[in-house]
Amino acid sequence: LPQRLASLAATAQEETWQSRQQLQAQRQEMARLQEELSRARQDGERWASALQRAQREALEREATRGAEQARQQELIRDMKERLLELLREKDALWQKTEGIDTPMPSPVPRDPGLCARCHKDFRLLSRRYNCSRLCQGKVCHTCSMDMGKHGRCCLICYQQRHPQAT
User: Fold this and answer.
1) Domain contains 49
2) d(C-alpha 161, C-alpha 133), whole Å
3) Out of the domains of life, which is the source (predicted)?
């Protein structure tokens, strides 16, 4: 019986030692899992903070975009109003100038050595003519019309005098 008791005591001691080993392994596993849980909570808090920051930034961007869109819509409205004003002004000017067909002759250039129309230099071979009508400018042969015994006149004065010729 003492041997059996010693054997049972040794077995119990062995089981106790194994139980302690298992308990220590489970405690280590539990410490590792608690550490992992702590890191996961910290990561969760960081992600929640990042999410809140991103949501705040998105709301700010949306507000900025809304203000910019309102400003652009106001600008478009102002541009449309200005376009309508310009169209009305153009129509009024068109109605005022509707009866005017031909342009007025341009003033005589200050340099008497140039044609009043094409600004060509008068040379030995290019003759200068005085317009015998409205403008009294000096014109070359190309820019003038023969009026017979009345002399020559520039093309613009001729067109004003003879509108059917255009």
Assistant:
1) yes
2) 9
3) Eukaryota
User: Do 74 and 12 reside in the same domain of the chain?
Assistant: yes
Residue 130's contacts (CB-CB under 8 Å, 6 or more residues apart) are 136, 137, 138, 151, 152
pLDDT (tens digit per residue) in 114-123: 787 787 777 7
**Which residue type sits at 62?**
E
Among all chains, which residue has been given the structure tokens 């040794």?
10
pLDDT at 121: 79
- Residue partners of 127: CB distance under 8 A and separation at least 6: 140, 141
Q: Which of 62, 93, 124 is the last residue of a domain?
A: 93
Domain count, the chain: 2
Q: Report the candidate in 105, 84, 121, 95 with the shortest Cα–Cα distance to residue 154.
A: 105
The pair of structure tokens assigned to 91 is 């129509």
